């Protein structure tokens, strides 16, 4: 799933390890989420959302177009 | 990706090389043990020049690999990498279990062959002393499950958990398919009888490779 995690992290000059520390996950987990190789669970997505004070849908993009086509 | 991420990536590669070097040491130790056993079984006398040369090369490679591990470890320590708390604990447990497994592997490799004509083999099933058997059974049956329980309960994060589940799924499917295929081919006289130890190692190896790929790619 595409996401803005790398951009949001860069805005705070955080390394992947820094973000991992904030989220209590490993650097590999942060890297996997950023590169779209792993989609976080709902609890972790909410944690990320709270950390950056942004709604989940502004951080993660599931490329769902259904709402626009209805 | 910032500098800290580059440092972490470089250290990841260093850790991988340290692991390969450690496996190399165990395998070469096995080769030395096998070589000496073979000589013993053939009833040869003291070591001749050729034997000393061969064993010297083996020993030199072991020293070289040990030196590589030490240097890589130093470089990792000096890099100033920041590691999240959970990952730090995870790394310690992985390294601890790796060293523990390495020691068990080394003990088995050395005790399986010395003074016997056994071929050095990962699948060796020759007799070992009851004391060693109890120690190894306790290590694998009591100590490792306790560490594993703690690890999965308190250390592994959800991405690694998913990597484990993927590894376990593919490994169990591989076992389900390969075991009966081997069994049928044995009944057809094409393959030797199925080897439970080989199947165990194959299953564990597939799970490990998939976990590693999913976690670190």
List keywords for this structure.
heterodimer; A: 70 residues; mainly alpha; 434 Repressor (Amino-terminal Domain); two-stranded antiparallel ribbon; B: 217 residues; 6 helices
Tell me about this structure.
The complex is a heterodimer of chains A (70) and B (217). Chain A has 70 residues and is mainly α. Chain A has one domain: 434 Repressor (Amino-terminal Domain) (Orthogonal Bundle). Helix content of chain A is 60%, strand content 6%. Chain A is built from six helices and two strands. Chain A has a two-stranded antiparallel ribbon. In chain A, helix 2 (16-23) crosses helix 3. The longest helix of chain A is centred in the C-terminal third of the chain and has 11 residues, at 42-52. The radius of gyration of chain A is 12 Å and the shape is globular. Chain B is mostly helical and 217 residues long. Chain B has two domains: 3-156, no CATH class; 157-217. Chain B is 81% helix and 0% strand. Chain B contains six helices and no strands. Chain B has helices at 3-41, 49-78, 85-113, 130-155, 158-187, 196-216. The chains are: A mainly alpha (70), B mainly alpha (217). At the A-B interface, helix 2 and helix 3 of A face helix 1, helix 3 and helix 5 of B.
Topology:
The complex is a heterodimer of chains A (70) and B (217).
Chain A: E1 2-3, H1 5-11, H2 16-23, H3 27-34, H4 42-52, H5 56-59, E2 60-61, H6 66-69
Antiparallel strand pairs in A: 1-2
Helix pairs in contact in A: 2-3
Chain B: H1 3-41, H2 49-78, H3 85-113, H4 130-155, H5 158-187, H6 196-216
Helix pairs in contact in B: 1-2, 1-3, 3-4, 5-6
